[in-house]
């Protein structure tokens, strides 16, 4: 490969895995989050009446109904106790109650970004690619915590570890000297993606249930860009006006999932919800960042639908710093260099 082409590629952007990432300072970041929560509401309880009056709550219930029914119908799954006749769907009272239940937690610019955020990911709802694990559909809603109205037209980044606790596209802490992990994750985009919120502030992603890695309870990251413009190649690079948060899962659900393959091959030390300093800080302040969920079928392997609402102070923002910015052309050029 010619030197000029290599120089051009490297000048376009830093490329995932060119250097190891900074480590996570758990105590420092957890303290920043707790300080923010002292002066801000931690949940969306105060918005319940307004969301009801706007019809947002009712539409959210119906959206979750439609989503899980569509998944079941597409995959030929009839959940235990569900009446399933043709294309019609008559939701039972118990499911209406289930889908009306809602957890919420307020995002903040001070929330921990973590060392694995990559800018420049593709706008897409299915982020699975070749990853194995329990199918997971997530419905995330974003509400302005000041006026209790949906955040419409905001772009949302999500990223997470795979079933064995590995992030794609970065050098993960503790794996810097493992050549096999470097080769397996170099420049890859699985379990990362971006979606635009609809008129009810909601986005939907199709992924797999994440696995654990050392020092953290199982979680999924979410970052909301209040004002952003996609690039012509259907990716998004925007590090301004961003709010960051994390989504967690019930410990009993986590324990059951991790009995399954390939989760049960993960050799990294586990951290439970009770041991996670970030999660405990949110709970102490009144937030509840646990995703509500419903099994799609009669067993975990059939998949899970999970949902959560986030609150955002739309007038407050800070710049976030990704570990790197992913530009496909630069990555392809450097991949060719490796082959040469």
Structure, described:
With 340 residues, this protein is α/β, with parallel strands linked by helices. It is built from 9 helices and 13 strands. The strands form 4 sheets. Strands 1, 4, 7, 11 and 12 form a 5-stranded mixed beta sheet that branches. The chain has a 4-stranded antiparallel beta sheet with strand order 6-5-8-10, with no helix packed on it. A hairpin with an 8-residue loop joins strand 11 and strand 12.
Short account of what is shown:
This protein has helices at 3-12, 26-38, 48-53, 56-75, 93-100, 179-185, 251-257, 277-285, 328-339; strands at 104-106, 118-119, 121-122, 135-144, 155-159, 192-196, 202-208, 219-225, 235-236, 242-248, 292-295, 304-312, 324-325.
Secondary structure topology:
Elements: H1 3-12, H2 26-38, H3 48-53, H4 56-75, H5 93-100, E1 104-106, E2 118-119, E3 121-122, E4 135-144, E5 155-159, H6 179-185, E6 192-196, E7 202-208, E8 219-225, E9 235-236, E10 242-248, H7 251-257, H8 277-285, E11 292-295, E12 304-312, E13 324-325, H9 328-339
Parallel strand pairs: 1-12, 2-13, 4-12
Antiparallel strand pairs: 3-9, 4-7, 5-6, 5-8, 8-10, 11-12
- The chain-level mean pLDDT equals 79
Kindly name the structural category.
alpha/beta
Share of residues in helices: 25-40%
Number of helices: 9
Describe the main β-sheet briefly.
5 strands, mixed
Indicate the proportion of strand residues.
15-25%
Distance between the termini: 6 Å
Helix-strand string: HHHHHEEEEEHEEEEEHHEEEH
* CA-based gyration radius: 20 Å
The number of E-state strands comes to 13
Shape: globular
| Model regions low in confidence, pLDDT < 50 over at least 5 residues | 1-23, 82-93, 176-183, 329-340
